[in-house]
Amino acid sequence: MNEYSATKQLARANRAFYEAFEALDLDAMAAVWATDAVVRCVHPGASMLHGRERVLASWRDIFQATDAIRFELVDLEMELHGELACVHLVERITTTAEGAEQVGEAVATNLFARQDGAWRLLLHHASPLARRLE
Amino acid sequence: MNEYSATKQLARANRAFYEAFEALDLDAMAAVWATDAVVRCVHPGASMLHGRERVLASWRDIFQATDAIRFELVDLEMELHGELACVHLVERITTTAEGAEQVGEAVATNLFARQDGAWRLLLHHASPLARRLE
Asked: Which of B56, B121, B127, B129 to mutate to test the interface with A (most CBs of A within 10 A)?
């Protein structure tokens, strides 16, 4: 695969992650993550979760606790490193729970690995964005 | 290089990062980071910094504002992916500034790339550890 195709597929895989999150769709979220490696996930402010079972359980809990969530993805950058790729971005997050809308920002590192020709998520590390550095 | 040697060298490179931090030694810190790629750094709660110049400037600022810092590294895991490698860990941090000691924890993803036979840091993403998930 050439780099242009790989980058396009990477962008699509990254989008699929946020679309699954917005849809609160656990099957779609499960399809995003790698199945042939230990996956890891850090939700903002939380400890690191290991393994598909615990990671997907955390998404189930988040989806159950969320009425609606929307992402605006900004400052997105992609880095290809052969069979691995990193997507870095800022998530502008609007959530609705019990009728109240909340807005926040997180910095995310999404590490993908190529599995069976498709980019699958190995690591999502999100951290609260509380201060902007120059 | 076999995987055992690569893992040992990776552990050493990761240790060198924290040793440079504890020593508040900017030259040692500069030597840890890759020179042949765009490097990125997320300090806990902060935005993502890009490029050696801005990343090293942030370390200079941190070193100037710090009297002493000590790390205990726990839950450390290493993943080799050919010419890239990830180190995941929890940083137990004790800082002293203006005579007062503070203790905190951060979750870190350290992504290394092999450059000229040595592991060099591409990305340090640290996030505050405020809640432990099961």
From this structure: B127
